[in-house]
Amino acid sequence: MELTRELVRRAPKVLLHDHLDGGLRPGTVLDLAARAGHALPAGTEAELAAWFHEAADSGSLERYLETFQHTVGVMQSAEAITRVARECVEDLAADGVVYAEVRYAPEQHVEQGLSLDDVIAAVAEGFAQGMDAARTPAGERIVVRQLLTAMRHQARSMEIAELAVAWRDRGVAGFDIAGAEAGYPPTRHLDAFEYLQRENAHFTIHAGEAFGLPSIWQALQWCGADRLGHGVRIVDDIEVADDGTVTLGRLAAYVRDKRIPLELCPASNVQTGAATSIAEHPIGLLTRLRFRVTVNTDNRLMSRTSMTDEMWSLVEAFGYGLDDLRWFTVNAMKSAFLPFDERIALIDGVVKPGYAAL
Ligand SMILES: [Zn+2]
To answer: Which of 347, 75, 70, 335 is nearest to 203 (CA)?
Structure first.
């Protein structure tokens, strides 16, 4: 059977690294901005979509992060946040995603008086509405959980970590830190990570995207991260000789031995310059070496991408087949911050039968 883009869309997919404020529909940004009196750099849906993509395409992580001033800017009321969260679930369901962990930083949505708890409740409401709306008559559904992100240049990580624990039985699966890596090592938030470990809570850390091995090493060996947000620069610790012989450094060997999940985001990496093209993206090597590779979107609006697009670009660049896509998907499901029995239920009850039916 020939693999088509439509077949990839129908295949069950699992997404661990997606930013709520990076996945708005351009039309929704326009609509919410008009209501909130927020000025935008473009006036039509097409122009705005192009503006986001171009700004994100500039090759600099700092410029990339600038685009979030507008998405975060229009997400300052509970209604706006709930709408964005609901549409996020609808868009992921239409894309064939069966399980997703979607992250955002509550502290960025309190400019107009919402409390951090209000923000989390608004996202929870939107996710619940979206999951209800996506339920098919046959009982198929999408499961979506929140990850609470703290901004690495700010000083609220402990507070956000406490909220992740307080909300863990109400749709919050874990914690993350994000933002420009340079100058803000994860060890700056050590108290938050140590607190989460004492609480038996899960967390991932954005590390090894623009910045190299020290950032990955700190995230794992100082902070105790369960997963690496990106982690793509782990290839700096892998040597491929001219004759094809591969030698892993101690950190790369540790990551592979311990099955540490890598939340790889190919399209985003190409945009920020962390990789030159999909074909040259380290995901090819890391997959060949059987690291715990997962495929993710990062920011669907800025990168004009989807899980189907990400998977399809890998099919085109590396010739992957359905077996490979299923491997990425099972890897992601195994690495989710969902309880073990729920992960197994999704793998055996949804992912494997879904691929078998294609
Ligand atoms: Zn990210």
So the answer is: 335
Best CATH choice for the domain 5-25+79-351 from the list 3.20.20.140, 3.40.50.740, 3.30.559.30, 3.40.50.1000? 3.20.20.140
Residue 206 labelled as part of a binding site: yes
- For residues 199-208, give the mean pLDDT: 96
Q: Ligand 1: distance of its center to the CA of 178 in Å?
A: 7
Q: How many CA atoms lie within 13 A of 22 on its CB side?
A: 26
The pocket of ion ligand 1, defined by CB under 5 A, consists of 298
Confirm whether residue 298 is marked as ligand binding: yes
Cβ-based neighbours of 295, under 8 Å, separated by 6 or more = 264, 266, 283, 307, 310, 311, 314, 328, 332
* Separation of CA 257 and ligand 1 centre (Å): 24
Query: pTM to 2 decimals?
Result: 0.97
Helix (H) or strand (E) holding 335: helix 322-335
Question: Catalytic site residues?
Answer: 209
For residues 271 and 151, what is the distance between their CA atoms, to the nearest angstrom? Answer: 21
Extents of the domains making up the chain: 5-25+79-351
17 annotated among ligand-binding-site residues: yes
pLDDT tens for 323-344 read 999 999 999 999 999 999 999 9
Q: Which residues of 237-268 are buried (b: 16+ CB within 10 A; e: fewer)?
A: bbeeeeeeeeebeebbebbbeeebbbbbbbbb
Distance from residue 139's CA to the centre of ligand 1 (Å):
31
Token pair in block for residue 123: 């996202």
Question: Ligand 1 center to residue 130 CA distance, Å?
Answer: 22
Neighbours of 160 (CB within 10 A): 23
Q: Where are the alpha helices (DSSP H) in 189-298?
A: 190-198, 213-217, 250-257, 266-272, 283-288
